[in-house]
């Protein structure tokens, strides 16, 4: 402590403590003591920074209100059709692991090798780039390496995203969180309509009775494996819809198309079932309507 | 009256130098966007901190409704988003804030890199900053699983299979993170604990070190 | 930034009013900006947190328990199920009620939760025509009046008689003693 040099100076403490009695020299100099166009942190500079902050906050709140956070359906470990996708900032890693020499026998290179080297280099960058020069155009190696990594990450992210979109198109899948929102909107519209007509609240299709439950189509469906996903009582399970009440949602032609070609993760049954069998099942499913009073 | 209370505390704890140091320290011209518009790149660090504060707050409020349990986690998220007033906004803030914090931190890192601000004597602050970056990625990774929807579940399975590919230690790491053989109830509680207690604790400590070093060394000089 | 320009212009003019210094003005503006930045995110969160206070309490509906003709002057134990919605968790817990008739023949139903420390009471276990709690020997009369240990009489369910059936509603403090 600087105080130690002045042995003649007596330090007076506040009560029985180690806090010295007010020593005005201890207060740091005011910002005005500094030369040039420096200014105080509070309020001058912070105000400018927080003007930027206010703009960012408004943008952020608008984004939040305009786009609700996505939520899919409850996790179902048996769902084989789901296309997994990490958050966007991990996509470059996700994509990297798809390339040869970083996957299969060399997967260690992809999971530990390349990211390990890259992140370690980033972590100890000040000890690798020890020159005095700070301007980026005067230290071409460091700047070039950084630029290349950024471009590589952006490229990998884009490829990965495009691939995902392509896969969605190929399998005719709508991402769950979008599907869910659409369903919720439809249900709300239906409820509003029912309310206008003085009708009752919407019924859960799983509560509907089966129409002509002893139809041979039932055993056909059992044989084809429909019941494994749509449940033995046709009430559906997880994100798989109930087949009770299907007739209210789809016409017979639509049902033939869905069974033949698949939809939203449901496999195509063309080949497993003959056209006549599909027709028979679709005819029966189209009869599954809510009873009219 | 406030002045009286302040003086009473100040006499005993001598707090004036502390806040005067924070409030009145000089900010040089070259980082001030009012003097050079291009200096807005120096704002990214502050914005990262601002969004981090929003993340911590919104996270604290989300735990009022959320339960880390495989049967109820999804239902509680569904409930808090669709049934509770402003739930969509609070969860939205936490969801989009997570992405935004990564973006801001990325921009802040690039600013520090391209202005060469990580060079001596600020090497330690760069290392601490990178550790903050890793902690943030960890928070993003663990937070992704918590709603327990299909996206969360299958993305976590991918992450775990990446962890498993580490030679020799892989299977052990996987079991440790999993809390068992499968991604299930114990994985969810583990990720919840890491997301809510372990990583935020580390984050606060690192942020403290980050700010302390900035105040000690001041901002890097003009180029 | 516009702020800076404004204050520069102000600096060129002779200062007429001394009420507010440049520094004070900046401090007030900063205070306003801080308030906005704090309130923007925090207000939705507060509304989110106090939501249970502001949602209308769902009316506990009455549940059909037993035929009125089965209720005697001697208390009998009846189980019934209610549908409980607890946020995202819906359940059908079983509740128990001791139902009997008072001297005027009116049906009333007592909650079996002892008012001492919350154990479950039982009728006439010591052949004294009293409710008895096994934990600390609390005793109640047939009307639920506390005789020993317990500080308050037993709570009762609201009772409704419709079409010859007893319907039980929410738990209320004892009205008979």
From TrEMBL, chain A:
<feature type="domain" description="Cytochrome c">
    <location>
        <begin position="211"/>
        <end position="289"/>
    </location>
</feature>
<keyword id="KW-0408">Iron</keyword>
<feature type="domain" description="Cytochrome b/b6 C-terminal region profile">
    <location>
        <begin position="31"/>
        <end position="159"/>
    </location>
</feature>
<keyword id="KW-0813">Transport</keyword>
<feature type="region of interest" description="Disordered">
    <location>
        <begin position="184"/>
        <end position="203"/>
    </location>
</feature>
<dbReference type="GO" id="GO:0016020">
    <property type="term" value="C:membrane"/>
</dbReference>
<keyword id="KW-0479">Metal-binding</keyword>
<dbReference type="GO" id="GO:0005506">
    <property type="term" value="F:iron ion binding"/>
</dbReference>
<feature type="transmembrane region" description="Helical">
    <location>
        <begin position="106"/>
        <end position="128"/>
    </location>
</feature>
<dbReference type="GO" id="GO:0020037">
    <property type="term" value="F:heme binding"/>
</dbReference>
<dbReference type="GO" id="GO:0016491">
    <property type="term" value="F:oxidoreductase activity"/>
</dbReference>
<keyword id="KW-1133">Transmembrane helix</keyword>
<protein>
    <submittedName>
        <fullName>C-type cytochrome</fullName>
    </submittedName>
</protein>
<feature type="transmembrane region" description="Helical">
    <location>
        <begin position="140"/>
        <end position="161"/>
    </location>
</feature>
<keyword id="KW-0472">Membrane</keyword>
Automatic annotation (TrEMBL), chain B:
<dbReference type="GO" id="GO:0016491">
    <property type="term" value="F:oxidoreductase activity"/>
</dbReference>
<dbReference type="InterPro" id="IPR027387">
    <property type="entry name" value="Cytb/b6-like_sf"/>
</dbReference>
<dbReference type="InterPro" id="IPR005797">
    <property type="entry name" value="Cyt_b/b6_N"/>
</dbReference>
<dbReference type="GO" id="GO:0046872">
    <property type="term" value="F:metal ion binding"/>
</dbReference>
<keyword id="KW-1133">Transmembrane helix</keyword>
<keyword id="KW-0479">Metal-binding</keyword>
<comment type="function">
    <text>Component of the menaquinol:cytochrome c reductase complex.</text>
</comment>
<keyword id="KW-0813">Transport</keyword>
<keyword id="KW-0349">Heme</keyword>
<keyword id="KW-0812">Transmembrane</keyword>
<dbReference type="GO" id="GO:0009055">
    <property type="term" value="F:electron transfer activity"/>
</dbReference>
<keyword id="KW-0472">Membrane</keyword>
<feature type="transmembrane region" description="Helical">
    <location>
        <begin position="96"/>
        <end position="114"/>
    </location>
</feature>
<dbReference type="Pfam" id="PF00033">
    <property type="entry name" value="Cytochrome_B"/>
</dbReference>
<comment type="subunit">
    <text>The main subunits of the menaquinol:cytochrome c complex are a Rieske-type iron-sulfur protein (QcrA), a cytochrome b (QcrB) and a cytochrome c (QcrC).</text>
</comment>
Automatic annotation (TrEMBL), chain C:
<keyword id="KW-0812">Transmembrane</keyword>
<keyword id="KW-0560">Oxidoreductase</keyword>
<keyword id="KW-0479">Metal-binding</keyword>
<dbReference type="GO" id="GO:0016705">
    <property type="term" value="F:oxidoreductase activity, acting on paired donors, with incorporation or reduction of molecular oxygen"/>
</dbReference>
<protein>
    <recommendedName>
        <fullName>Menaquinol:cytochrome c reductase iron-sulfur subunit</fullName>
    </recommendedName>
</protein>
<dbReference type="GO" id="GO:0046872">
    <property type="term" value="F:metal ion binding"/>
</dbReference>
<dbReference type="GO" id="GO:0051537">
    <property type="term" value="F:2 iron, 2 sulfur cluster binding"/>
</dbReference>
<keyword id="KW-1015">Disulfide bond</keyword>
<feature type="transmembrane region" description="Helical">
    <location>
        <begin position="25"/>
        <end position="46"/>
    </location>
</feature>
<dbReference type="InterPro" id="IPR014349">
    <property type="entry name" value="Rieske_Fe-S_prot"/>
</dbReference>
<dbReference type="InterPro" id="IPR017941">
    <property type="entry name" value="Rieske_2Fe-2S"/>
</dbReference>
<comment type="similarity">
    <text>Belongs to the Rieske iron-sulfur protein family.</text>
</comment>
<keyword id="KW-0249">Electron transport</keyword>
<comment type="subunit">
    <text>The main subunits of the menaquinol:cytochrome c complex are a Rieske-type iron-sulfur protein (QcrA), a cytochrome b (QcrB) and a cytochrome c (QcrC).</text>
</comment>
<keyword id="KW-0411">Iron-sulfur</keyword>
């Amino acid at each position: 402590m600087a105080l130690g040099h002045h042995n003649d100076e007596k330090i007076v403490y506040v009560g029985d403590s180690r806090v010295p009695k007010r020593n005005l020299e201890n207060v740091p100099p005011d910002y005005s003591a500094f030369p040039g166009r420096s200014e105080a942190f509070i309020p001058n500079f912070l105000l400018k920074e927080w003007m930027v902050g206010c703009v960012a906050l408004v943008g952020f709140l608008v984004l939040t209100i305009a786009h609700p956070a996505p939520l899919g359906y409850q996790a179902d470990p048996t769902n084989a059709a789901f296309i997994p996708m990490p958050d966007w900032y991990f996509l470059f890693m996700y994509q990297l692991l798809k390339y040869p020499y970083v996957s299969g026998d060399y997967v260690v290179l992809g999971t530990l090798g390349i990211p390990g080297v890259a992140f370690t280099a980033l972590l100890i960058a000040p000890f690798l780039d020890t020159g005095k020069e700070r301007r980026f155009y005067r230290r071409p190696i460091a700047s070039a390496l950084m630029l290349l990594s950024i471009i590589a990450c952006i490229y990998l992210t884009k490829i990965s995203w495009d691939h995902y979109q392509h896969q969605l198109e190929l399998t005719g899948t709508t991402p769950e969180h979008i599907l869910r929102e659409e369903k919720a909107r439809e249900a709300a519209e239906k409820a509003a309509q029912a309310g206008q007509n003085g009708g009752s609240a919407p019924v859960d299709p799983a509560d509907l009775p089966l129409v002509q439950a002893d139809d041979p189509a039932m055993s056909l469906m059992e044989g084809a494996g429909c019941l494994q996903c749509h449940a033995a009582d046709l009430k559906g399970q997880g994100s798989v819809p109930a087949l009770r009440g299907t007739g209210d949602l789809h016409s017979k032609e639509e049902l033939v198309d869905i069974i033949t070609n698949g939809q939203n993760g449901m496999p195509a049954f063309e080949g497993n079932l003959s056209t006549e069998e599909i027709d028979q099942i679709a005819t029966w499913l189209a009869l599954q309507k809510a009873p009219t009073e | 009256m406030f002045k009286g209370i302040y003086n009473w505390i100040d006499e005993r704890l001598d707090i004036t130098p502390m806040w005067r140091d924070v409030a009145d320290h000089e900010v040089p011209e070259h980082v001030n966007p009012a003097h050079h518009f291009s200096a807005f790149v120096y704002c990214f660090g502050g914005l990262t901190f601002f969004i981090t504060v929003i993340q911590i707050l919104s996270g604290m409020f989300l735990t009022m409704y959320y339960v880390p349990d495989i049967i109820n986690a999804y239902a509680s998220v569904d409930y808090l988003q669709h049934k509770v007033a402003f739930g969509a906004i609070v969860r939205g803030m936490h969801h989009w804030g997570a992405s935004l914090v990564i973006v801001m931190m990325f921009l802040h890192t690039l600013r520090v890199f391209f202005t060469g601000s990580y060079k001596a004597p600020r090497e330690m602050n760069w290392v601490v900053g990178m550790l903050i970056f890793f902690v943030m990625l960890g928070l993003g990774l663990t937070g992704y699983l918590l709603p327990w929807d299909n996206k969360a579940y299958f993305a976590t399975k991918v992450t775990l299979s990446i962890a498993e590919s580490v030679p020799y230690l892989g299977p052990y790491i996987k079991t440790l993170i999993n809390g068992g053989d499968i991604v299930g109830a114990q994985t969810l509680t583990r990720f919840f604990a890491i997301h809510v207690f372990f990583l935020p604790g580390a984050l606060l400590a690192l942020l403290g070190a980050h700010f302390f070093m900035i105040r000690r060394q001041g901002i890097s000089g003009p180029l | 930034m516009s702020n800076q320009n404004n204050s520069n212009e102000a600096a060129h003019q002779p200062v007429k009013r001394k009420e507010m210094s440049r520094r004070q003005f900046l401090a007030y503006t900063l205070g306003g900006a801080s308030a906005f930045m704090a309130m923007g995110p925090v207000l939705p969160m507060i509304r989110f947190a106090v939501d249970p206070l502001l949602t209308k309490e769902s009316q506990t509906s009455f549940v059909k328990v037993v035929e009125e003709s089965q209720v005697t002057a001697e208390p009998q134990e009846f189980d019934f199920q209610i549908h409980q919605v607890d946020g995202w968790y819906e359940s059908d817990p079983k509740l128990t009620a001791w139902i009997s008739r008072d001297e005027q023949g009116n049906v009333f139903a007592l909650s079996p939760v002892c008012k001492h420390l919350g154990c479950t009471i039982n009728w006439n276990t010591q052949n004294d025509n009293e409710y008895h709690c096994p934990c600390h020997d609390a005793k109640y009369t047939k009307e639920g009046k506390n005789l020993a240990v317990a500080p308050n009489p037993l709570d009762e369910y609201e009772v409704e008689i419709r079409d010859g059936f007893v319907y039980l509603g929410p738990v209320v403090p004892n009205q008979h003693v």
